[in-house]
Fold:
Amino acid sequence: MRPHKTILVVGAGRFGRNYLSVLDQMTRNPAKGSRRVGTLILSRTDANAARTQARALADTPGSAFASVVGEAIANVHQLEQALNKHQPDLVCITARDRQIGDDIHVAYAQTALSCCAVLCEKPLSRAGQGRAGLKKAMALAEHPRAECFGLELPMAVVRNKMLADRHLGHLMRSAKGIAFFWEKLSEQGDLINDLALHPWSLLPADRQIRVEAVSGNSRSVDIRLSLHDDEKWPLDLPCHIHLSTGSAFRGMQLDDHLFQFHFEAGSLQVLAHPKRRRIEPRRQIDIASAKPVLIVNNPLARHIEASLKGAPLVDIHETLRSQAFLEALHAHA
Structure:
């Protein structure tokens, strides 16, 4: 067994840089009982760009990695070469192909699983292409090492922490109505594929979800769901998800209790607003009036640690459910 871990980040661009930052923090301050990252391999589609980025990271004052290597990976063949050369313990897939976007995730995951554990940026595949994404997910689930696959959903970590909290867990399980308001600044991309899994992954996993209606446009989408559990909730529980562009507000309404999710310094804070109130989409909320009720330290680091231990937080079964949810939304849109 190697004394230190070797991790390959496939796609060290916009999303991959967050992984690099978190891995650096984890290596500087390793969790109790975990081994440090010794060798970090980062990839770009261009070899020179990969080597330049790797050299800059290695030369950063205080860098904790034993070595940083840049590799060119633009297709499955190049990924296979990197896997054979470095034999990593974990592959983090954050690439987005210029032509097929997130659809590259499945092909890379299929290849990397034959070598090691895999942690993949969401979504596994774009939905809305004749359910092709779900078919790819189902094929991935048939891989002999599918149990080593994990999907990186930060709000799934938050959900688990909230459910474990006596007060928040009670509110989540006893609420008679749930609403989410999830926004992003950029108008680029697809709101459903880009955002819908964040609120979805906050819902208790034991509830059955039925999509009732989806409406909207490229800048605003309204989703109506009903949640059901034959044993605990004999009546359908209404759930509303509003996705939009224009700000970075992320909130959840449990009956009259308003909670806001705020990222700061790598951690996620769950903020409770003091007054019971109902909010409307795009309405500005004063964050200064909110009180932190839960702090989740670095959700991405929790995902990485779990994957390295062979127990992904969002396993292949929940990944299939996530893809089926996205496909159902697009079918109703």
Notes: The longest helix spans residues 316-332. The mean pLDDT is 90. The longest strand covers residues 233-245. The two ends are 50 Å apart (CA to CA).
